[in-house]
Each structure stands twice: as structure tokens, then as C-alpha cells.
Write a structure and sequence with these properties.
The protein is an alpha+beta fold. The protein contains 18 helices and 37 strands. Strands 5, 7, 8, 10, 13 and 15 form a 6-stranded antiparallel β-sheet that branches. Strands 6-9-14-11-12 form a 5-stranded antiparallel β-sheet, with no helix packed on it. Strands 1-2-3-4 form a 4-stranded antiparallel β-sheet, with no helix packed on it. It is globular, with a radius of gyration of 29 Å.
Amino acid sequence: MKKLFLAVILGVVVAAVAISSGWAERAVKVYQVGEEGQLTLKEDPRRKMITETQAVIDDFEDDEPRNYVDGETGSWNLTPDNSDVGVSYEVVEGEGAGGSKKALKITYDVDGSEVAKVGYWTKLRELDSRPYDHLAFDVRGDSKDGFTAVFLIELKKYKNEERIDKIKGTHVIENVTDQWQTVQIPLNLFTGLFDQTNAKIWEKPLLALKDLDELVINLESRRVTKKTGVLYFDNFRFIKTGARGENIIDQPKRAGMKTPVKLEGVEFAKFLVKRLRGYPTKVVVQKEFPEDDRAFLMEIAKDTWSFFDHIVDDEHQLPLDTIQLGKKEPIASDGWVGDYTNVTNIGVYLMCLVSAYDFGFITKEDAVSRIKRTLDTVEKLVHHESGFLYNYYDTTTLEQTSYFVSLVDSGWVDAGIYVVKNAFPEELKEQCERMLAKHNFKFFYDEVEQQMTHGYFAHLKVRSDYVYGSFYTEPRATSYIAIGRGDVPAEHWFRLVRTFPEEYPWQTQMPIHREKRTTLGFTYDGGYYEWKGIEFVPSWGGSMFEAIMPTLILDEAKYAPEGLGLNDSNYVKIHLRYTLEDLGYPVWGMSPSSVPEGGYSEYGVQPLGAKGYKAGVVTPHAAVLGLEFAPKEAIQNLRELIKRYPIYGEYGFYDAVTVKTGLVARKYLSLDQGMIFVTLNNYLNDGAIRKRFHSDPINEKALPLLTEEKLFDQSKAAEQKSST
């Protein structure tokens, strides 16, 4: 309920203010006192700036220090200690757009010896911009002092009601001149505001435009066309043009039904199963496992292979993303057959076919035949004009089901192609090289941040607003490939963040020895975290997947024993100890996985991440990923999972279990099964997949990235290496 406060200033005005959570509801009524003491409503001219067709944030015509939504303004400088860098702003007379009297003048200098970022901000105070479809403003440069023709503008908001993490949408403004021009940016292009981890955004995408917190102008030394200068701005406003456009939630239109008559539920599932090479016949499997550890792992490998042998569209030779078995019967109303696939699934599936040959489950001829059929299908798929695949396809119709072109997924499909190219060069090298030649990872490279963007929204013709900034995460495998190919400079590797600066208070702990380091001639900030005396470079969320999945192809233990290899070992050691000792769980292994209660979510060991995911669900693929760094503990953990929970089926481990309740997600995910199968092959067959990858010539340029970097204090690193 709103509370009404009444303040009376005799003979002048009375103001009644309704206090609420957002400026749009913050109704301010100003009254004036008449000659006979009566109150009459005095209209506030500032409220005229908010109408159905536009919401003016500021035109700088009044003398108020705040904008028209009562938001504060200010400047910012990420390098305040650098005297060579600076920014200032003021409202000046006689410089406004379209004959107006005033404008905002921003004077900037980013001409320092290091990378510099400065700018201007104005608070939007939970502005609801849903009635509008464009952000508009006027801008020009100063012909006398000079100016940049390019800059970045951002809209920011809090990610959720906790009001801790912020998300942002960005847009690059180009072709600024010394004449006033009006810029109009469709709000749908601020893609970072559309939080795809929020289920409500998928239902109502326009919620992304609600509760905006801040508008920011960014002037960055690596982006601007002139490093010192003056820009003028006027009339920041949100406008309604009627041309809202598509957003990132939109998906390509589908051709129609997959069957002559409409089928639903179990009948549709049966139709899809007929397209596969097989399907589970039981939900719960009772079996005895060998006491010998190698035989135990081989049994898991054999069962896991059944997924990749069977859950493949027989016509197109593409793996399905997901199947969910019913509680009582494999095909049931509470089950599901997901006849779609992601391109990472395809890349890992290619590695699985090579692994099946390594295990002796299929012949060389069979492996080559299956791989070639998959590659033939991939070449027929609709590609983006960049040469890369879209992120998702229908395995029944081969229709593109996503507009997004993903950096990390493109990396994994190429990783799979490199593996099969070197596994069967006589049969597949020519086709693989033809496919790889169509790709250039420079497409994803942000020249300003010197990092890789998450991807590209083809229907909007814009990159993602986010980059992969953390070093010890899954995309490092793609960065390694891109550098090895010569698509992006080696410096990119050293612009990935080992640890965040102390000015980032949200991180789980402050970094130790975050000092300048130089490797291969590149200077960067190092540092690490520590847990109970064990040093480690953090991942983002503390999960096994993001930290260890790159070791499917990168032999970090061999080539980086004092760098990434040591970090892998320390990371796994902390992961299992924290879960067993601090959380008191009987089993360990947390990563993004199915939620047994429904859905999919991120899980991890919070202290291992700069940000840290929540705990609660254990997934077998995470335990298997730790096999090469803690073999005894990993094998014991897998046996404990089987002993405690109904988590093992015909195709090996189901995807996840809620530890406290024992509820199991009766799902098989292609990616998670693939990580299990390839890891088992690497462990049992002397790094078979990694050897194929490292035999490729791209490693000549990229391998020093692994061999030369030492992540920790060398005396302590030697002690930790000997203890592991």
C-alpha cells in the first residue's frame, strides 16, 4: 500500500508524494495556495515530458541537477589513478539541437599509455520503457577540439529482485559528424537486456524493457577514432515509432507438421523413436558391476556408447539432444523425445564415434561410414553467411531452429572435425579441411575488448552484448583453436581474466598476488584464489564442466604442468573436498545439468568460482570429468552414486540427482553423455582423443600458450605439484 505524505509550506505550495517502487508510479502532485487559502493543482512542466509516444529523459533545458525521471547523473573513469586520462561534463548554453538553448557537453581524454575507458551516466530509476520501441538522442562533435566518430551506448538494469547483478544492452554509434544528427536505436537491439536464463522473459520478452536503471555513454581508447575531444548530446528520450521489430527470443518459422496427421504425446514420441536406431526398454536396470576398476569403467563406457549408437536420427545421422524416460515406462506421457540438436552435440558426437572405434565397439569401416554420413548432413544444413552453423537444428526435418550463431558451440563442432580429420586422414581429411576452411573465428572477435563475443543474432544483425572474459572457462578451448588457426592474435589469450580486480566486490574472494606478469611478450594481470592452502585460478561458476571440459582435447596436464594442468588438479581436489567435507554430501560432482524436479540449471562449488553457482544437484558427468585428476576418488564416487540412487539405466548414468531427496532426472543429454564417453576413452586409452587433436598443425602456433604460462608462485607450485 502506498503511503501519502503531506507537507505544507504556508502561502507557497503543498506537495503530496505517493511513494512507490518505480518512478512511473511516483506520482508527484504540486498544489498552490489561493488568495482565500484554497488548494489548486499546479501543473509540473517536467511531467509533460512523459507521454504515450515519448519519455524524455533529459533535454538539459531546465536548471535541475537531476534528469526528468529524477535520476542523478555523473561521469566515470575506470583508471582514476591515471593522470593522463579523464572525462568531464557540463550543460552549456547556445549549443542545443534543433534550436534549443542548451546541450550536454562531454570532454574526454583517453590518450594514456594503457587501455582507458571513461564516460557519462544518467540514472533511469526503474524506467518502464515497454510502451516505447526506440532510444533516441541528438549528437554532434566539436569541430574545433575534435571528436570521435564512434562510441558505445549502454542501457543497464538489475538482473533480478536481489538488485546485486546487473545486465546490459549495448549499441555502437558510428559516423558522428560536427553537425547535429538524430540517432534512433531499436530497443530490441539491446540484446543483453533479454535475460535468457529468466523463464519469464521467454513467456513475455518485453519484460526485458522494464525497470531500466541506467543509461551510459562509453568512450574507450581502443574504440574511439580520436582519443581526445568533445561531444555534445541533447534530447535523450524513449520514443514510440510503431516499428518494434523482432527480439532474440524469436525463432525461425517452421514448415509445418512432421507427420501426415497430427500426433501428440505418446503417439508422437513413438513416431520419433521409429526414426532412431534404438531406444531403452527399461527405466531401472539392476546389474552387478565388476570389482576391478578398469572393468568397471569399461562397463560404463559400453553402456554409454549405447546412447550414441541408438539415439541418432537414422536418416540424417545426427544425435538427438535429449530424451527423458517415463517414471514407469521408457515411452510414456511423462517422457519426452527431443528431436533437435545443438552443434556442440555434433562435434562431441564425432569424437564419440572415434572413441567407439578406439574401444573396439565398432570397426574402422563403420566409424568412417557413420562419420561421413554425419559430415554430409552437416554440409547440407543451412549455414549463416559467415560460414558457421546456427546453434540448433531439427534432427527430423533439418530445419534451422535458432537464429543464434554461437562462438563456443562453433568451437566444439570444429574440435570434433579436427579429431576425425586426424583419426582417419586417408578417408576424411579432404572433406574435413573443406569444412574447416569455411570458418574464421575473427567473426566473433571483439577488437575493443580483445575477447570473443558470445555469438551473433543473425535476424537482428548484431553481436551478443557479452564477451567471454574469464580465462578458466570452457571457451578457452575455442580461443586456443582460433589462435592456432591464425584467426585471432595470440594476445587475445592474455586478455582473458585470470582474476578480477579488488574493485569488483561481488566476487567470492579477493585475489592473491594479482600482479603484472609477462608471458610470450604479453603483459597481463595474474593472481589466484586460495582454499585451505590450495591455490587455484577460479572459473566463473565453480562447475566441473566449464573448468575441465576443454581437457577433452587439450592435454593441459602434459603441456602445462605448472599452469593449467596444475590448476585442473587443484580445482578437482577442492571440488570433491568441499562437497564431501564442507557440504557434507555423500557424493560429489556439480555442473550445469538437468534439475530432477524439472528444467535445467547451473550448479557448482561456489568457492571455486569468481561468481559461484548454487549447490544441490550432482551430475555424473562432472564426476567423470575429474577422473584423470583424482582417479581413485572419481571411481569411488561413481560406485557410490550407483549404490545410493536409482541413477543407472540402459545407456549408463542418468543425468542428475538431487542429493537431499534422492530424486533422479531420468534424462540422457547428448552433451553430458558425450563428456562421459570421451573422458573414459582418454583415461582408458592413453589420451586417444587428445592425441588426435594435438597432432594437427594448428598446435604449432597455439601450444606455447599452454607450455609457457606459470599460474602460481613457483615455490608453492612445486610443493602442490609434488603433493598431487
